[in-house]
Amino acid sequence: MIRTVGLVSLSSGILGEESVEHELALGLKRLERLGLQVKILPHALKGMDYLKKHPEKRAEDLISAFTDDSIDMILCAIGGDDTYRLLPYLFSDKQLAKAVKQKPFLGFSDTTINHLMLHKLGIKTFYGQSFLADICELADDMLPYSFHYFKELVETATISEVRSSEKWYEERLDYSEKALGTERIAHKNQGFELLQGAAKFKGEILGGCLESLYDMFDGSRYPDTVDLCRQYQLFPSLSDWKGKILLLETSEEQPSPIMYQKMLETLKATGIFTVISGLIIGKPLNELYYEEYKQILLDTVADSKLPILYNVNVGHATPRCIIPFGVMAEVDADENVIRFG
């Protein structure tokens, strides 16, 4: 049972901006209604400019969230694009290794990098939701599918299984205070889609946002990303990936098919597709490039025996489930379910 949630801003500092005060207030009320106490870590509300300039303060908050025994679960405010900059402040003197202990850690998007940091230290984590993106949903309530998984996590500290959502929602264009109480536009969801391979496969799941993983090998966004990630050996070795299921989902940047192929080919060059037991692919935002991505996946993986499960409700498209990293998962595409434990 989770009683106290620690709220951290490890990437973007937007949670501290005046423009999202209405979202912060809404999200805190929702957590309190679930019977949760919230500890906002000291620098989580310092704002975008401050946290951009001070990655060491973001690192301090993560360490504090692990060492504070009153915090039962760490909840990321949102993603961003530069959490890799925390690496020296967490690993140069084993700072994070000295602090970590097993407690639920939840985030997605650029938080992919934090998941890999914690995986490196043997910590099991949860991928798929964040405070601003899910708890602070501007409708009168959280999206029911997303709420189901968040409630299960805070009540049991686990996720037992993930099934497909009956609906998917268009991304909001307006997040201002005027949008409070407005519903998202919903569409019927077709369920998980097995693109190839066996309908049943298993392994521990690891991965996350494709753009974040790609940035570990390409310095176009930030020139020092590749060197820092290599220096601290952040991307798991092939022996570590062996038998795992690779989770990939795309961000709100909605990469073009050409870019999608480039990112997949970059991952393929690591040899990862030769050792994993399967792929789980998140639904593209607003279903843009839905069919194009499918074909690129098949062409790039180029191994018809490797299972690929597509259109999973994880990542940037709403609603969002929560997927545990570091526990055995069994995929059953015939039943449209992923079971854990």
TrEMBL record:
State the InterPro entries in the record: Carboxypeptidase_A_C_sf, Class_I_gatase-like, LdcA_N, Peptidase_S66_N, Peptidase_S66C, S66_fam
Q: Which GO terms describe its molecular function?
A: carboxypeptidase activity
Domain LD-carboxypeptidase N-terminal, which positions?
Answer: 5-128
Which residue numbers delimit the LD-carboxypeptidase C-terminal domain? 202-331
Q: Which UniProt keywords apply?
A: Carboxypeptidase, Hydrolase, Protease
The record's Pfam families line, in alphabetical order, gives: Peptidase_S66 (PF02016), Peptidase_S66C (PF17676)
Q: Write down the PANTHER family for this protein, in alphabetical order.
A: LD-CARBOXYPEPTIDASE C-TERMINAL DOMAIN-CONTAINING PROTEIN, MURAMOYLTETRAPEPTIDE CARBOXYPEPTIDASE
Question: Source organism lineage?
Answer: Bacteria, Bacillati, Bacillota, Bacilli, Lactobacillales
The protein depicted here goes by the name: LD-carboxypeptidase
Identify the species of origin: Streptococcus chenjunshii
Q: Which family does the record claim for this protein?
A: Belongs to the peptidase S66 family.
